[in-house]
Amino acid sequence: MGVLYFVWTFWCFFITFLVYLFFLPLNLVLVFCLGQYGRDIFVRYHHYIGKILLFLYGMIKVVKGHFPISNKQPCIYIANHKSYLDVIIIASLVSQNIKYLGKAEVFKWPLFGFFAKYSGQIPVQREDKQSRNKAYESMKQSLGEGFSIVLFPEGGWRNNGDENYPNPYGYETNSMLNPFRNGAFRLAIETKVPIIPIALLNAGEKFSSKTMRIIPGKLFVYVFDAIHVIGNEDPFKLNKKCYDMICEKLINKVL
Known about the structure:
Blueprint: H1 2-33, H2 35-56, E1 59-65, E2 76-79, H3 85-93, E3 98-103, H4 112-118, E4 122-124, H5 129-144, E5 148-151, H6 183-191, E6 195-200, H7 203-206, E7 217-223, H8 235-252
Parallel strand pairs: 1-7, 2-5, 2-6, 3-4, 3-5
Antiparallel strand pairs: 6-7
Helix pairs in contact: 1-2, 2-3, 6-8
């Protein structure tokens, strides 16, 4: 089985490269010939690239909860993050114009960095306060322009159980889910944009960032009700509420 998984993983990486390479000429036309209109199209059709990649990986989404997402209003999607699959899954779920907050290093990757940069995704160096502030303002601007934002609020926290990096918000956490940063919740309250939590139940098992092994099969996803804010909520309480919702699904593994 180990050899088969190795071969399948190689196939998945190879086909991913080919898919992005195939769409490169179209992306160049959209970005450099059609201006902002082309960039908007660029962002939107990544929904279909996500669907294509999951199909080629031999993965089938099993989605429960409040889906499909028909709300055209900008919103903030938050999800747990344990796998490189996470971005692809969410892209395949959401057909709205969306932008991701992502690590600045990704924007330097060959080919994939081009897609990230010119589709208007938002880079952040999490340990740099100036970079975080710039990313926050970029997200506010994007929401105002009608884009939805995707964040993985675990980003940058050390693993649970490390006493040198305690949870700064004080609520009880589980080893399956690192504490959430507060930025997504401050952003929702400040802009009065709803938050939609998403629990990705087994993406880390299907594509582990530790072993880099890809296993075909079913991907279980739960989409929660939108949480509407009116602008005077406590970001810490909103943080804990979303954390508890996602964590419960990860623990129970039941859709």
